[in-house]
Amino acid sequence: MHRLVATSLSDQVDALRWRRRLSQWLLLLVVVALVLLFADWFDTNEADKLPLALQRIRPAWLPADWYLNQPQPHQWLFLELAGRLISQLGFVVGALVIRLAGYALWCWGVLALAAELGLGMPWLLAALALWLPRQGMVAGEWMLGSAEPKTFAYGLLLLAFVSWRQQRSLWAGLQAGLACSAHVLVGGYGALTLAGLAWWRSAQVRLRGWLALAGALVGAFALYQPVLGRVAELAMPAPALPQALSPAWLYVVFRHPHHLVPSSWGKSWLVLMVVLAGWGVLGAWLARGAAKRLPCHEAQACRDLWLWSALALVPFGVGLLASLADADGVLLQLYPFRLADTLVPLTLVLLGARTLQALVGSCAVRSRVWSRFPLVGLTAIVLVSAWLTSRGAVRCPSQAFAVPEEKAPLYRALMTSTPPGSRVLTPPGGFSDLALRTSRAQVVQFRQVPGSLRLLGAWSRRLADLAGGEAALSEGPGGAAAERRLMAAYANLSASDLATLARRYNVAAVVTREGRPGPLGWQRAPVGSRWWLWLPASAR
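Given the sequence above, the corresponding structure tokens read:
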């Protein structure tokens, strides 16, 4: 009888614990969605990823778009699942579902991590509200934002860390492997650093390595095909390119310096120094003073999280050293800064909040004013965070999905003047959303990089065509400056140059800046914006 009563009470306690965890998860998801859900719609990588996903499922959608029809084996799992959603629900609803699914998984992971640290819900919400507007230090990385696979990978890594802490070897390995399947770089660096953490702490936290490895191999199923394909690609002779336009240089220095070239980070170095200083102070406190303020289990969980972020800084430091001698970016194309750029500041805010919770909890402040302060202060922090991140779209969600005002008349005229699926010649920058917004194909865009290094030569040749020569690619800095340089070069093309490009790429329309000439023999369609639309005379 006593055993039955004890079992019943235990079941009730477990049910209450699960209900409490679910309610906390829903609250956290609401806060994250409030801050991020309506930010940067179709203005970031979504403009690339979502059309790629739809094209994978419906190859007949835009067969004339060169970028969308190139293989992307390293992200096939995300493209396969996201493509089916978008095919059924459309871009807006599909992207909403993908964003919310990624946020939900990540929130479950960070909530489990907070429970392991002993971090209370108000402190967790305040910490995340401070972290969400700028999630990375210097390398332009983030965990939460648009509908992308990296959000799922980060959520799975947080769960893998908690599973390791709780000595659930199979689950830890499986979750780390699934993170690799979701995003090879985030999952790969995360799994390797977690393995290093498990080895470092093996005397205190038992981990059955064979179980973890088996789970990781099962979870990483989506990597086998792209890894084998990458090995085969490296074994083939590289395409002939000018020495100054090597594939590594094109990818790292020309296209992604904000992620991969430390010399381009500018004032962001100050943010890095501040974050590392705070992170170092917290590490010293965890080593010496945490045992007096925190329960033993929670203090060790905090130390383990700090150590994991320290291991993530190892490839970061190696990347900094490599950048001094690797001018073309051969090593830097492995994204050594990716994991630490987001994990270290997340660690800082979580452990900083846990430290403040411990210090405030020990104070003898019990006034009525103090009891009301957390609710008022937390609400203010969340609302300010939402305002800063969404730039006002949280007040008017519909404007988050709207076509940018300067391009809306052009896109309307384009859809009425050209058949669906036709190819359009646009400036090489600023029109990455053309396929998503209009169902028209592109010639090339600076931001739409093919998934294979062997295709970077074809990509650069198309950019050079639209810029009047290869000089525009290499005559200045990369990144956003290179995109602006290419657009300026396109704007200076003559009418005969544009006519040649129109024939070469068999386009149905040409877009130029207001006041610039169109192709010889073509006529301008009335648009009413600072972009002009040119159509063949026969089309008029």
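The two ends are 89 Å apart (CA to CA). Try to locate this feature in the token string yourself.
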